[in-house]
# Entry
Amino acid sequence: MASKDTIAIILGGGAGQRLYPLTKQRAKPAVPLGGKYRLIDIPVSNCINSDIIKIFILTQYNSASLNRHIARTYRFSRFTNGFVEILAAEITPSSADWFQGTADAVRQCFHHLQDYPDETVLVLSGDHLYRMDYSKFVAKHHDTQADLTISVTAARGEDASGFGLLKTDANGKIIEFSEKPTGEDLEKMRVDTTTLGLSSEEAARRPFLASMGIYVFRKEVLGDLLLNQLPAAIDFGKEVIPQALSRYNVQAYLFDGYWEDIGTISSFYRANLDMTLPLPPFNAFDADAPMYTRPRYLPGSKVLDCHVQSSIITEGCILNGAIIKDSVIGIRSRVEHGSQLEGVLMMGADSYQTLEIMQADINAGLPRFGVGHNCFIRRAIIDKNARIGSGVRIVNESNRQHHDGDGYFIRDGIVIVPKNGIITDGTVI
# Structure
């Protein structure tokens, strides 16, 4: 059975509190990534590149911007049966509640799956950064005649307690699963990962098998688990997977490529800035498996008398006499003369300001979109449509890890200027 006979469900996640304030006005899958993409583009692009073109996206919070992005980006030919469709939480005769968790979200939307003949369901997360050929994942599922296959990655000891961990037998069948264990329970889940192809040195560094939260189900089994056997279960990792082990053939699929859970501000910031490295762990320049996003038809960026080092400059930007180091500059960004950005994720703007609007802003005492003159900004995230005046210093001088300020936030020591935020001339953070 080919991957084209598979239907995908992408879990949009909850309120995204760990990514706040980036999720203050948008759903987590709609958070901008890499200067021009959004988080949702990762799993959708992986699906398309794997010849899986029937895709549902489950979400319930701040979904307007996500809906716009999906509607403007993913339009398949009328001669295919492909689609990318948002399924928001809805009140029905059988359910009067919001999605309570990952399993509950799929349960509430399961009747939509029954409208299609596909017998294989791929369940994905909407906040991971990785490139995977799902067709190999699905092929392993069918080759082993599995009821459920879980994609796993080898994890380091310091990271392992944040994941669901598992053990397999010699044939790859999962025989034990523990959700986010600690202490002695964590040590019990240590395995010899050389059996999965890792070198002895790499296996010593990564001695745990962590679930990536990515699953392939036989649709019949998924329905039986959610609707009949575990009708009150709300989470795959904590409830459904442990129960499935004793009842079904549950297999593991090892993924040994780059994979990053970007559910926190620090991991999100690091994943974006890592893209500027000479050999980035996630390479957007892969012609065989491109990342898709909304085409915007913007002009090429203008870089006037600037020093740019180890940075990404996307389309439609105007950089005038600035110093840009180790930064990502998003679409339609403006940075004025004398300003210096170091380790900055600048998401850009949703539109250009006309000369009349810019003059009106000046008359109202407002900075225009972007970064003004003679600013110094280090280790920061500047969300879309933010206005930063002239002579501003954003360096977290007090070295705070968590703080809500006047027009800004600090999370994990990273200063965040939120969407539509305003930082006036001469401000020091």
Notes: The chain has a mean pLDDT of 90. The longest helix spans residues 102-113. The two ends are 57 Å apart (CA to CA).
